[in-house]
Amino acid sequence: MAVPVADALSPAPPAGDVAAPGRRSRTRGLLRTPEITIPAAVLLLLLFFCFVWPHIYPVPPPTGGSILDSGLPMWSPGHIFGTDNVGNDIMSRILYGGQVSFEVAAAVQAIGLVIGGALGVIAGYFGGPVDSVLMRVLDVFIAFPSLVLILAIVDSLGQSELNVIYALAAFSIPAFARVSRAATLRLRDQPFVVAARLSSVKSWRIISGHLVPNMMPQLLTFSLLGAAVVIILEGALDFLGYGIPDPAPSWGKMIANGQTMLSVRPSLVIVPSIFLFVTVICLNLLGDGLRARWEVR
Amino acid sequence: MSTSVTAGEPGTSSAEPSRPGGGAAAGRRLAGSPALRVIGRRLLITIPVLWGVTFLTFLVLNALPGDAATALLGANATPAEIRAETIKLHLNESIWVRYWDWLVGLLHGNLGTSLYYNQPVTSILGQRIPVTLELVVYALVITFVISVPLAILSARKPRGAVDRTSMVFSMASLSVAPYVLALLLILVFAVNLQWFPALASGTGGDIRDLTLPAITLAIPLIGFYVRFLRADLLEQMSEEYTVTALAKGLSRWKVLSRHALRNSFIGLITVIGLNLATLIGATVIVEQIFGLSGIGYELLRAINNRDVPLVEGIVLVFATIVVLANLATDLTYDALDPRIRHGRSRS
């Protein structure tokens, strides 16, 4: 009687012991990789400054500045980066504009991940006519000059942050669908999936329990790299005059508005450009670092 | 990347001095093989894709508020004038009738008449396409001239000084937005140094006008290609044929530039094909900033003017280029790599 109990108990503690340091060392390894920690830390810092800082420290409003304060140079008292030509504080516009950039990027990638990811898995797993119809539709979207559709969507729905998100999602959805379809095709005939299918596990359980968790690292790194593209594209929309509607700030719009004063006050272009660049390069570095670590393509 | 590389390799490296002959041989092989049937089938697949693009464009433009009549006459036009213009432009007919007319015209090689310019779309395209084409070719030339040597230099001593510098440069160039890059180039080279004009002077085509826009397009591409080519070259350097060449006493530089590069080009060509869509998309913004009257610039104006036939024409050109580039990429890939041509899968 004692023997089976001992048998049943003895494997348990070692298993726990093995699992715990394994997980701990894995996270510690992640924290010890500067390729991952540095961009992640910079991004967290930027997020903190854009979303939390305005609530704990009084920042001048990003819009409705006084014309008497217009055109203050860098390092003016109360306005670290100076003011623009209608008197708004540039630092404050950077912070609030950053909120727009991060919100748009996160929303677009989330929509792409959920809808595009689901479409790709379904097409890849079931194959057949569903797959070929879906792939042709995606081909159309990929062959379509992206700006035309984005401009058209924003133009017909009206300019707002939400419509910019919808417009950009029209491109993140096909991209995610392609990636998740390719990942599904790679996983579909792996022994563990075949075994699950042979033991008559339902399709949706195979998809949700086996396929999706296994392609998540790839989709997550892809969404980080894609977020960088979305932030740049959002700025491009502002540049062409189809972005976030007017009094509200965004990095792209600040750059576009500074364009006219380029030779007189280059700092109007350079300051938001630096924030845009640092954000994008950190997203790229983080995506690359995680991709190398998780060994996904 | 693993099967029978060594078997294919001596043939390619010995054929190197007579490159044109090799190309002709490849052409013959292509014509004699089932490849022609593959091309035919692929071309047939592109037709529904292109049709889908034109149809989507029509639907999207139709959903936009306003139409060409209001855009043409401006805000001061009376309702009666707008009504007359609408009838004159056949905008009163249903969208299906207009799309059908356009499609029938397309099958006869007629892209219709621009509603705004009142000129045939084909002649407008004929004026605009050369500017954009010159810009893209110029950008690609700059890209190659810089990225191929840089990638070889990086791969010669991985993790050396050159390699690290070029990796930092490529990461930075991939992360900079094209419009930021354009403004920085204008600030440095047009405003401060005054080497190049900030805005294009004439109708385009002047190489001085095109230099800054082409550099704007090229820099992100250089970053991308250097990273890609370096990784691929390093992979080639661990293959048996390059190890053999090194063992025979060839310098690492020669092995890289003569042997490994040839095989890395296969991957590079596919990447170019895939990048072409992005490159064409970027021309829209770059032409807008530098005031180049290319096809991308015209596209924005045409959308604003609700000039449906012109937008359709431009979109069709863009989509055809992308689709054909993807097709050509697949086919070159087949022609360059015998393993694919003979139906063996490439890992």
> What is the end-to-end distance of chain B?
6 Å
Distance between the termini of chain A: 52 Å
Greatest interface: A-B, 40 and 42 residues
- Could you list the spans of chain A in which at least 5 consecutive residues all have pLDDT below 50? 1-21
Proportion in β-strands of chain A: under 5%
Helix content of chain B: over 70%
* Shape assignment of chain B: flat
The largest β sheet of chain B comes out as: none
Q: What structural category arises from helix and sheet content of chain A?
A: mainly alpha
Q: Give the tally of β-strands of chain B.
A: 0
Q: How do the helices and strands follow one another from N- to C-terminus of chain A?
A: HHHHHHHHHHH
Topology pattern of chain B, helix = H, strand = E: HHHHHHHHHHHHHHH
Mind summarizing the main beta sheet of chain A?
Answer: none
Mean pLDDT of chain B: 77
Oligomerization? heterodimer
Overall average pLDDT of chain A: 80
Task: Provide a count of the helices of chain A.
Answer: 11
Tally of extended strands of chain A?
0
What proportion of the residues of chain A is helical, as a percent range?
over 70%
Could you characterize the architecture of this molecule?
The complex is a heterodimer of chains A (297) and B (347). Chain A has 297 residues and is mostly helical. Chain A is 76% helix and 0% strand. Chain A contains 11 helices and no strands. In chain A, helix 9 runs antiparallel to helix 11. Chain A starts with a helix and ends with a helix. Chain B is flat and about 85 Å long. The N and C termini of chain B lie close together (6 Å). Chains A and B meet through helix 5, helix 6, helix 9, helix 10 and helix 11 of A and helix 3, helix 8, helix 9, helix 12 and helix 13 of B.
Give the helices and strands, then pairings.
The complex is a heterodimer of chains A (297) and B (347).
Chain A: H1 2-9, H2 12-31, H3 34-56, H4 90-126, H5 128-143, H6 146-157, H7 161-188, H8 191-198, H9 203-239, H10 251-258, H11 267-294
Chain B: H1 5-14, H2 19-32, H3 35-63, H4 68-73, H5 79-88, H6 95-107, H7 121-156, H8 161-175, H9 178-192, H10 207-237, H11 240-247, H12 252-290, H13 295-304, H14 308-336, H15 338-341
Helix pairs in contact in B: 3-14, 7-8, 7-10, 7-12, 7-14, 8-10, 9-10, 9-12, 10-12, 11-12, 12-13, 12-14, 13-14
